[in-house]
Specification:
Layout lengths: L20 H8 L14 H8 L1 H6 L3 E6 L4 H14 L4 E4 L11 E3 L2 E2 L2 H18 L5 H15 L4 E5 L16 E4 L7 H4 L3 H8 L8 E4 L6 H10 L2 E4 L4 E5 L4 E6 L3 E5 L5 H13 L6 H10 L7 E5 L2 E6 L4 H22 L2 H9 L7 E5 L7 H9 L5 E7 L9 H8 L8 E4 L2 H11 L5 E5 L2 H12 L1
Helix pairs in contact: 2-5, 2-6, 4-10, 4-11, 5-6, 8-9, 12-14, 16-17
Length: about 450
């Protein structure tokens, strides 16, 4: 989600007929006073003029996914299962890592620049007709919904951008709501406690629908919303659960079924939530489709392991305390597997007991300034991982934390000699390659923008 708070003039003229996707994206960031403007009063008239609200009610099934962490993985798994079952499946996610087209997919494929530009033109015409200004996120979300409607998709899988109740995605009535979890994040917009945040997330509920709640503890505000809407709730740890069997297999259980399934490349918690949503829906998704989806689903930047430039990389967009907990739960076993591939069992034992391991983890790290950087760094440094260096730089983004701010927080937890500062993340990326060994693991985390800039540098 583009969420800069830089002010703009709403009087910019619309792009010309031959404008590029980049020109359209630049324009849409200039027509509203801020890129985040919570509320549906401005966007609804434009949506109705476009007909997207009615289209979503006609012969479609809509999954809407809200929550603090895990929305991207959850939506990806739901979409992959529906697609594997033969449904024409629309997937909307945000933000993107490399190119905007990543946000809008049909049957797993990013839509073209031409398709996006055509939709932007129609949204712009409707906006002008309604004499309203819309934020970047509102404009682009409406365009995605219009594309899905015009493509006559059977299933829409929609990731909420921020909160739920007042997010533009919520103009579409969900048939199945998923709330992955609730933690403290986006305090300025959602509140500073889980009850207020729960109220916002639960705003995606509708009367009589089913809802998946993907955590063991539920805020009272969410339960109250479920009761108010007389929704049927399936909760993690109460109505469904999962367990790991080995590195390739896991088991999912609910009151009706127990399934032994191939392990996906994404979080099992998010996968279990997604599977619960699919199984609770009226869609015909059999075990073969589920297994096929789990073997093929992937999502860039979510526990994303790659080998590039003769180095081992792990990219993860963890940017708050709960996200780091998810990362660490998977990273610790991965580190042991990584060592096992490089060393004998006896050597692994020696490495674990050594003060200075021959193989180490190096961190490429940056965050946005309005996140709780201290909590994230504290969890990463206290997890017992053999981190031998932190390579930091300021993200090229209006709300980025300065390198000096990052350094100041890191210095509370690690020796100054382990902190390496750079002006640009691309410079830090090249430096970490030079400073690492082939047996090391490089972990890139802290923000979507951190992952995007690092990948861009690596792919140049």
């Amino acid at each position: 989600m583009s969420d800069s708070l830089v002010s703009h003039s709403p009087s910019s003229s619309s792009p010309h007929n031959e404008a590029s996707l980049t020109e359209w994206l630049d324009y849409m960031q200039q027509i509203h006073v801020s890129a985040i403007d919570m509320g549906l009063s401005r966007v609804l008239p434009v949506a109705e003029a476009l007909g997207v609200v009615q289209s979503a009610k006609d012969d479609t099934y809509v999954f809407t996914v809200a929550g603090t962490n895990g929305k991207g993985s959850t939506t990806a798994v739901i979409a992959q299962m529906c697609q594997a079952a033969g449904y024409k499946t629309a997937l909307y996610q945000s933000p993107h890592l490399s190119v905007f087209n990543e946000r809008v997919r049909i049957n797993g494929e990013m839509v073209s620049d031409e398709t996006l530009i055509n939709a932007f033109s129609k949204v712009e015409a409707a906006r002008l007709q309604c004499d309203l200004t819309l934020s970047f996120f509102e404009m682009t979300t409406l365009a995605a919904l219009l594309i899905f409607a015009e493509a006559d998709c059977d299933v829409w899988v929609l990731e909420v951008g921020l909160g739920g109740r007042l997010d533009v995605v919520n103009i579409i009535d969900a048939d199945m709501a998923v709330i992955t979890n609730i933690a403290i994040d986006h305090v300025d917009w959602l509140g500073d406690n889980v009850e207020d945040i729960g109220t916002e997330k639960a705003g995606i509920l509708r009367d009589g629908i089913s809802v998946i709640y993907g955590a063991n503890e539920m805020p009272t505000s969410v339960q109250q919303a479920i009761d108010k809407h007389q929704a049927t709730c399936y909760q993690m740890g109460k109505d469904f659960s999962y367990r790991e069997i080995d590195s390739t297999t896991w088991q999912y259980s609910n009151a009706a079924v127990t399934l032994q399934l191939p392990r996906p490349a994404l979080s099992l918690t998010n996968t279990a939530n997604a599977l619960s949503a699919v199984l609770a829906s009226p869609l015909n998704v059999d075990t073969n489709a589920i297994e096929q989806a789990l073997q093929t689903v992937k999502l860039a930047g979510r526990f994303d392991y790659r080998e590039m430039h003769a180095r081992h990389w792990l990219f993860d967009v963890a940017h708050n305390e709960q996200g780091v907990e998810f990362l660490l739960a998977q990273l610790l076993p991965l580190w042991q597997q990584h060592l096992a591939k490089k060393h004998t069992a006896e050597q692994v034992n020696e490495i674990n007991q050594a003060k200075s391991a021959p193989a180490s983890i190096k961190m490429l790290f940056s965050m946005l300034g309005d996140k709780d950087i201290n909590k994230v760094v504290q969890r990463l440094t206290e997890a017992g991982l053999p981190i031998s260096g932190w390579f930091i730089a300021e993200i090229d983004y209006p709300r980025a934390a300065s390198t000096e701010h990052l350094q100041g927080i890191l210095a509370r937890y690690v020796d100054d000699a382990q902190i390496h500062e750079f002006k640009r993340l691309s410079e830090a990326t090249y430096a970490i390659i030079a400073a690492s060994q082939p047996q090391d693991l490089i972990v890139v985390c802290g923000s979507f923008h951190t992952i995007g800039e690092a990948l861009f540098a690596l792919e140049m």
